[in-house]
Design a protein that fits this description.
126 residues, 6 helices
Length: 126
């Protein structure tokens, strides 16, 4: 499902809204401070395997209660990929979807990159 959506976005060259996005959600989210992003990344990277989504979601809800902009969320996913934190990247992506953020092909590309870096290509199809 996500791969088909990613392919559709890439073919149109635009950041399409996922079907589960809430109508009327503000498109522009406030910028998040670098200190807050670093703190969140440190906490995410300390997550033990298997990653429990509940505590991670609580941490993210608290850290980003004012919202998170698409560039920041993509940066977080890219950093998780760089550190080969595939499970955490999937949990973060799930949180973004559940929080009704508009996801684009950069978000999915970062998670696919994490799959590639961990040689987990079958996970890229999730």
């Amino acid at each position: 499902k996500n791969v088909a959506w990613l392919a559709a976005c890439m073919s149109f060259g635009s950041a399409t809204v996922l079907p589960n996005s809430l109508p009327g959600k503000a498109q522009a989210q406030p910028a998040v401070s670098d200190d807050r992003v670093q703190t969140v990344l440190q906490n995410l990277l300390r997550s033990k395997s298997p990653v429990q989504s509940g505590p991670v979601f609580s941490t993210l809800d608290e850290a980003f209660r004012d919202g998170v902009d698409p560039r920041t969320s993509t940066r977080i996913l890219s950093t998780l990929a760089k550190h080969r934190a595939l499970e955490v990247a999937f949990v973060f992506l799930s949180w973004l979807k559940m929080s009704a953020y508009d996801l684009n092909y950069f978000h999915y590309g970062a998670v696919i990159d994490a799959c590639a870096k961990t040689s987990m290509w079958t996970e890229a199809l999730r």
